[in-house]
Specification:
The protein is an alpha/beta fold and about 300 residues long. Helices cover about 60% and strands about 10% of the residues. The chain has two domains: about 120 residues, 3-Layer(aba) Sandwich (Rossmann fold); about 150 residues, no CATH class. A five-stranded parallel sheet has the order 2-1-3-4-5, sandwiched between helices. Helix 7 crosses helix 9 and helix 9 packs across helix 11. The chain is globular, with a radius of gyration of 20 Å.
Length: about 300
C-alpha cells in the first residue's frame, strides 16, 4: 500500500510515517504540509491512500479532497482531526473520506484504522478483478480459444500493480491499435500513437492536443506507480516472480534498484523517477502478443 501524508504539523507526519513503516502497512511515497503544490505532488506519486489533516493554513482537508477528486484522483482518503463536529464530519464523508483518525495521534487507533482501510481497498480491487473476469465469460462463440487482448493486458498490468490506475485504459487502447497494425518490430512516435488512440476513441480534432497531453500524463503516472510497486516487492524479496520477470524487461533496472534502496532505507525520493514510456509500451505489446500466442 502506498501512502501520502498531508499535515502542516511535521511531528504528526513523522509519527504517522513511523507507524506505517514499523507495522509494515506499506510505504510512504510522499508527504506535504498542505501547500497548494500538494495537489500536483499527489497526482504525480499516485498513492493508494492519502492521510490528510482537516485544518491547514492554505486549504482545509475537505476542499483539498474535493479538488483532487475533481482532477481525477482515484485513491482513498483517511482524515486526521481534533475537531468533533457532526456537520463537519458529515461534510468530510460526503467529500469522500473513508475513516477518521483522531488527534492527538494514538498508535493503536492509527494501525486499526489503516488496516480496515487496506482491507476495504483490497476488497474493492478484488471486486473489480471479478467483474472484469466475468465480462470474459459467456462468449456466444464456442470455437473461441485462448484469452482476449483485454484479459491479457489487464493481467500483465495487474502483475505490475497498476490495473486500477487511470492510465491502464489508455494502455489497453494503445495495445488494441498496435495489434490492428501488427507493429511487431517497433511502435510509432508516442505523439502519433496517442493521436491514433484518441481518434479511435472519437475525440474531436480540436481536442486532440489536450487529450494527447492528458493521456501522456496518465500513462507516465501509471508507469511510475509500476516502478514503485515492483521496487517494493524487490525490497522485500527480490526472488518474487513479478519482480524477477518484469523489473529487468520493462524498466531501467538502475531506477528500480535506486528506488529499492530508498524503500529499504525509508527515504523519501529526492527526484522524479526516470520513466521510459516508449520502452514500456513496446515491451507491453510484445508481452501481450507472446501471452496470447501461448494460449492459442
Amino acid at each position: 500500500m502506498r501512502y501520502f501524508i498531508i499535515d502542516d504539523d511535521k511531528v504528526s507526519r513523522s509519527m504517522l510515517k513511523s507507524i506505517i513503516v514499523e507495522q509494515r502497512l506499506g510505504i510512504v511515497v510522499g508527504e506535504s504540509d498542505g501547500s497548494l503544490k500538494t495537489l500536483e505532488q499527489v497526482h504525480t506519486l499516485s498513492p493508494n491512500l492519502v492521510l490528510i489533516d482537516l485544518l491547514m493554513p492554505e486549504m482545509d482537508g475537505i476542499e483539498m479532497i474535493r479538488q483532487l477528486k475533481a482532477q481525477g484522483f482515484r485513491g482513498q482518503f483517511v482524515m486526521l482531526s481534533q475537531v468533533v463536529n457532526k456537520e463537519m464530519v458529515g461534510e468530510a464523508y460526503q467529500a469522500g473520506v473513508e475513516f477518521f483518525i483522531h488527534k492527538p495521534i494514538n498508535r493503536i487507533e492509527v494501525e486499526n484504522v489503516l488496516r480496515q482501510t487496506i482491507e476495504k481497498i483490497q476488497l474493492m480491487q478484488s471486486l473489480v478483478t471479478i467483474r472484469d473476469t466475468l465480462s470474459y465469460i459467456g462468449s456466444p462463440s464456442p470455437q473461441k480459444v485462448g484469452r482476449s487482448l483485454k484479459e491479457v493486458v489487464l493481467s500483465i498490468l495487474q502483475d505490475m500493480g497498476i490495473a486500477g490506475e487511470n492510465g491502464s485504459a489508455d494502455m489497453l487502447n494503445i495495445m488494441e491499435v498496435l495489434t490492428e497494425q501488427r507493429s511487431d518490430a517497433a511502435i510509432p512516435p508516442l505523439k502519433q500513437l496517442y493521436e491514433m488512440v484518441a481518434r479511435k476513441m472519437g475525440v474531436a480534432e480540436s481536442e486532440l492536443p489536450k487529450e494527447v497531453k492528458a493521456m501522456e500524463q496518465r500513462i507516465r503516472r501509471s508507469i511510475t506507480v509500476a516502478i514503485d510497486h515492483l521496487a517494493s516487492l524487490g525490497a522485500v524479496d527480490y526472488t518474487i516472480h513479478e519482480f524477477e520477470y518484469y523489473a529487468p524487461r520493462f524498466f531501467d533496472f538502475q531506477e528500480i534498484s535506486t528506488r529499492m534502496k530508498q524503500i529499504q532505507n525509508e527515504e523519501t525520493p529526492n527526484r522524479p523517477v526516470k520513466v521510459q514510456v516508449k520502452k514500456f509500451l513496446l515491451m507491453l505489446y510484445k508481452e501481450t502478443i507472446e501471452q496470447q500466442n501461448n494460449f492459442l
